[in-house]
User: Fold these one by one.
Assistant:
Number 1:
Amino acid sequence: MHRVKEIISEQYDIVPAKFQVIENVRFVYGCRCGEKPVTTALAPFILPKTQVTASFLATIAVQKFEDALPLYRQAKIFKNRFGVPFSDTTLSNWMIKASEKLKPFKQRLKERLLEQYLSQKAKAKNKDRS
């Protein structure tokens, strides 16, 4: 027998959330001659000296601002469902630090919107004069 045609059907599926630990390995190299050891560079973190990834920050922010899920309830969910004990204070501090990282983006966005508004206003004014 030979294939006559292919029929494709689609199904929607969702992959449940899961926590994973990402290990960032750094090496320290030393010389037997007694010179100071050299440590390899650390990969860049969105929030230095924290355990949070950009993806996790985005999840927290979406759940807080889009889904209206308070940080204390998120902390409770992370602990009960995943066994990861973050406090709501930790989540709050991460959100504050993340918002500080976004300030330049927010300022530039504000400037661009103002430029567009003023440009449209000037065009409308010139059109009225015509």
Note: Helices lie at 54-66, 71-82, 88-101, 103-129.
Number 2:
Amino acid sequence: MICHECNKSEMIERHENVRYDESGLPNVVLEAVKVRQCPTCGNRLVTIPRLSELHRCIAVHLVKKIARLAPADIRFLRKSLGWSKNDFAKKMHVNIEQVYRWESDKSPKPMMIQSELLLRAFVAIGKKIENYDEQVDQLATIDDLEVSPFSMVFDNGWHEHQLVGA
């Protein structure tokens, strides 16, 4: 492969350990990834296979770590869920300023443990919960405790079953 920067030399390929600064996390190293480098101009091309899978593995690592989440961790996890800061604030039932404080590198304000555990749970689930926004909005307006009967049925796996006449 000829260097696309200088168009003069063949890129030399080798495997290296590379810091993954583009993740937004200061402590991620990718081991033995393919790196092509031009001997003439020094241009480097790093090949990162299966990027979505890598990001999911990083997110799972952060969820499992036995330490509080740092601002960069919170930002990475939020982005791994595909949420803007506004989306995040809405789903966590906080104002947008709170999200800015959680993600601030200059003067961070740690998440309350309940919020951190909720964020870790969102990431651990790893998929969009259908109608979550509407359900949470409704829940936020309800003060009464209500114990309603529900039923589970086993049919090649457990499923919620609608009770008739309940």
Note: The CA atoms of residues 150 and 163 lie 6 Å apart.
